[in-house]
Write a structure and sequence with these properties.
This protein has about 400 residues and is mainly beta. The protein folds into two domains: about 20-75 and about 385-405, no CATH class; about 75-375, 7 Propeller (Methylamine Dehydrogenase, Chain H). About 10% of the residues lie in helices and about 50% in strands. The chain contains four helices and 31 strands. A hairpin with a 4-residue loop joins strand 22 and strand 23. The mean pLDDT is about 90. Keywords: Signal.
Length: about 400
Amino acid sequence: MQKRLIFLSLFLILSLISHTQVEIPKDKYPFYKVVEWPNQGSILLSKDPTGSTKDIYINLLNTEGELSWGKTIYPKVEDPKLIISSNSNYIYFIENFKPENNFINYNQVNQSGGVVSTKFDVLKVIRSYGYTIPNELELNEIVNTPKALVFYFQLPVKSDGIIENIFISITHHNNRVYHFKGPATDMKSQKKGMVGPMLYAGSDESTISFSYYSNEGSLSNMNFINFNSKAEAIPEQSIKTPVAEGELTLFQTLNMEGSAYIDNKSLYQSRGKGIYSRGNYYLVMNDLSTNCVKILGLNEDRKLVQLNSCSPSEVNSRNPKSIISYFEMDGKQFIVSEIGDNFSSYVITQDGVQTLNLNRKDIENVQLNPSSFKTKDKTTNFVHVINGVPYSTDTKELEKQEKIIFKQ
């Protein structure tokens, strides 16, 4: 493998001299997927098309146009779920979303190609809270934060009429398991729409944040549950708003997080979503009375204000769909709202909230290939950036290609 990497690296360097294209020939097995690892390069995945082995071969094509390393993982399943983030120097292949024999199994790969195949004991975690039923855990989210991989499980306890919210944080550098239990959700309140689901809000080096909507009388709140990578609680925050204006909305991530793989989208329907970014807290909601998305936050006087501009409009539908898609890129939070046929987009930065002029096609490839969004590539090609210059390749029928060719 080492000799092959040296040969391929030399081959790629020679290709770069022409400034036109880079070629990566397949190895023993054909490629089946290419995924961007933001700030690191592109992950080229190969496997046996016959399925006689579940091994997955991973190569990293770096931002210099060289194959940094090639590694193999040996999952027990055919299609482990890739969890990747621009904020982390590790990627993960999760083998099971439901505990098997009390364990969640996964493979970790770091930026240098180091591989760790391991698992963690879910039963051990919930026993500390007095429960012994790991098979009833429901996984809602997995996020790859700067310092830890975080699993969010719900545990329905019908006898008490509550849902326990349990977070398991696994620190990247040593795969050590920590856990944190958030406030329980009252089932009756949730059924009445008074309490929404917990959704991932954001993270940084010191804080991991989830949020949930709640309604109390004449006020609605966006509540932020915070903890650090060692699952130590950080004081909660909340944003109080006037009588609920938010419409029940599907919130969907365009980052490669656990919720992207979960089919039950009702788990992510809420009247609002909290966002944590750069130490600031925001509330995002679709308001059907104006057919506008609202991004609320605290101004310099610590007063709640609407931070974005939106002109009220009409929707040509009696019950328009309400969707908010969101993703993080380069430390910025992108918000894309759909209310019926109305489509609007914004970005939250350290300088405030700015209006964007995006369309649906602009965000089609964000999840697998953020560079296609940043370079405004209008094709379905996969974009790989080499020394600041975008190269692209066609990933259709990838398994039939003898080599992947990136062209400038």
